[in-house]
Amino acid sequence: MLRNRVKELRARHGFSQTELANRVGVTRQTIGFIEKGEFSPSITLSLRISKELQIKVDELFWLEGEDFNE
Amino acid sequence: MSNKDFRVQVPLWNIALWIVLMIWTYGVAHAVDMIISDFEGVYVVSDNGLQINWHVPGMLSIIIGTFLLLVFFATYFLKIRRYNEKNPNNKVGTFTFIKPGEFLEDDEMLRQVTESATKKVYILYSQALPLLIFFIVIFPLERYVYVVMIILLLIVHNALYYLEIRRFLSGDYNLSTKRKSRNNRLQKVFTVFLILAFILAIAIPIGRIIQIEINHSETLQEFEACIKEGRTATMEYEENGFASVECE
Known about the structure:
Order of helices and strands of chain A: EHHHHHE
Largest sheet of chain A: 2 strands, antiparallel
Number of strands of chain A: 2
Structural class of chain B: mainly alpha
Largest interface: A-B, 13 and 14 residues
Radius of gyration of chain A: 11 Å
Radius of gyration of chain B: 27 Å
Shape of chain A: globular
Strand order of the largest sheet of chain A: 1-2
Helix content of chain A: 40-55%
Distance between the termini of chain B: 80 Å
Helix content of chain B: 55-70%
Oligomer: heterodimer
Strand content of chain A: 5-15%
């Protein structure tokens, strides 16, 4: 399962789910499912999200059981 | 995107159209049947002379069905027009043959949800169509019954599709969820249904043969009894294979 910090970083940037969704070109629901870890985004979408949240992809997404370095 | 989005509601519109068509096809199928195979039944000779045999339920179904179809299409096209005015970058085609309006491919997750919904519809057809063929072969019913069954299948298809998309929009969706227990139950129900269908497929023709056999031996006895009484016996065979004896 893919873990992520999208929710945390989105809140830090003051974006709502809808705002982030509009910025990366997906629906609000998709952002919600990514945050819950129920949907694994493609590399393209992961890069778009990480760009909007100003963070490296491997610091935003990581595999369950592996540590991430903040 | 929400449940109220027109593109999400397209399957519901499809269901409404199929319900209206179910009403309309009753009259049309009856009218076509009369014209093609029972043209003499179109007219009735009565004391007042030659009269047209107005089949009231059939006529009502055509009149009500046509009215509902007109109302449906007027509302549907109005709805499409309004939607396209509000969403110029995401228009819905009035007549789409290749990509149905209900296909939602706005982003990669919606594409997956649409794929999952179409997969379920594919499974539905691959299971239901053989059963439908079996039903048509075994039960010689009026063809409108089969039309209703096909329409019901289309309604289930659209309902299945709509529910899948709605689950995504309401946030209650998990692509990785494997509903094993539910699938197992469905599998069992389907197996039982198949076994019952198989038993029926064997039992009905055998039952029919036995019935005809009994009928023939009985009529033969009646025939002989009639002859012995010194009367004239006439054997009559019906289209369904049964025979009867007329003793004069």
